[in-house]
Amino acid sequence: MRLTLAIFLLNILPLALLGQADSQHQQSQQKRQTVHGQTANEKPSPPDTEVRAQEEPEHSIADKGKENHNPPWYKKPEWVAVGLTAIYVGITGWYVVVSHRTMNQIVRQADIADKAANAAQKSANALITGERAWLLIDAIEADPDFAKQATPRFTFRVANFGKTPGFMIGAKAYVQLSSEFDIPKEFIFIELKGARAFEGVIAPAGKPMTIPSESWDFPFSDAEEAQRPRIFANPPEAWLWVCGSIHYHDVFGQVRVTPFAYWYDATGKKFVRSNWPEINKPT
C-alpha cells in the first residue's frame, strides 16, 4: 500500500511542479510587460540630474529582479521534476525486481510442494501395494471326462496372497472352444456385467473360496460339437478354454478385478494357466 502511494505521488509531483513553473513564468512575463508598457507611455523627462537619479534605482531593481528569476539550475522546477522522475523510475525498477524475485520464490515453493505431494502419493501407493489383498485363482478342478461332457462343469478356488482381507463381490466364468492356440479375443469375462454375486471374506493365507461352475451353463454349440474331437488329436487341433473373472474390494476401499484364463490339456487331463500379460493378474 505504501509503495503504491509513493508511486502515485511521484507520478503527480513532477506534473504539479511543471505547472507551477509555467504559472510563475507567465506571471513574470505579465509584470515585465506592465513595466515596459508604463515606461513607453510616459513622456520623456528633461535631462535632469534628479530624474536620472530617480530612474537609476528602478533600473537596478529591474536588473535585480531579472537575477532573481534566473536561479541556479539545481533550483529550477524542471530539474526538480527530472530528479523526481528519476526517483520514480528507480523505485519502479526496484519494485519490478522484487516482484520477479517473489514470483520465482512462489514458483520454487510450488514445485517443492508438488514434489512432496508426489513423493507422499508414491509412498502411500507403496504401502497399499504391500498391505492390500491380492486375490488370485488358486486352482481349477474338473472331472476327468471334462472335455467330453455335453455341458462341461468345473470349479475354481480363490485364494488371498496379500496381507489384509479381501471382500468378494462377484464372479463369472464360461468355457470357449478355439481353433487356434491363443487366448480368446472376446474379453467380456473381464467386465463385472453378467457376474453372479459371491459374497465372502477371504483372509490372507486362509481357506480359499470355492466357486462352482454350476451357476452357469456352458452347452457346446453345433459348430463347437463338430470341433470337439480335435481337442484329443495329437498334437491338438483345437483347445478348450476356461475364462472368467473375480471382483472384490480391499480394506482401502478399492474395487479390484482379477481376470483368468486356463486351457485344458486333454492329454494330461489338467488345466494350464495362460501367460497372457493382462490375464491372471489383479488390478
* CATH class descriptor of the largest domain: Mainly Beta
Strands of the biggest beta sheet: in what spatial order?
Answer: 4-3-6-7-8
| Count of DSSP-assigned helices | 4
Distance between the termini: 56 Å
Helix content: 40-55%
Tell me the number of strands. 8
Total domains: 2
Beta-strand portion reads: 15-25%
Category from helices, strands and their pairing: alpha+beta
What's the architecture of the largest domain, going by CATH?
Sandwich
Provide structural commentary.
The protein is an alpha+beta fold and 283 residues long. The protein folds into two domains: 2-98; 135-273, Sandwich (Immunoglobulin-like), CATH 2.60.40. The protein is 43% helix and 23% strand. The chain contains four helices and eight strands; from the N terminus they run αααβββββαβββ. It has helices spanning 2-41, 49-68, 77-131, 222-227; strands spanning 135-142, 154-160, 166-178, 196-202, 209-212, 239-249, 255-265, 270-273. A five-stranded antiparallel beta sheet has the order 4-3-6-7-8, with no helix packed on it. The chain has a three-stranded antiparallel beta sheet with strand order 1-2-5, with no helix packed on it. Strand 7 (255-265) and strand 8 form a beta hairpin. Helix 1 packs antiparallel against helix 3 (77-131). The chain starts with a helix and ends in a 10-residue tail after the last strand.
What are the main properties of this structure?
283 residues; 2 domains; 4 helices; five-stranded antiparallel beta sheet; Immunoglobulin-like; alpha+beta
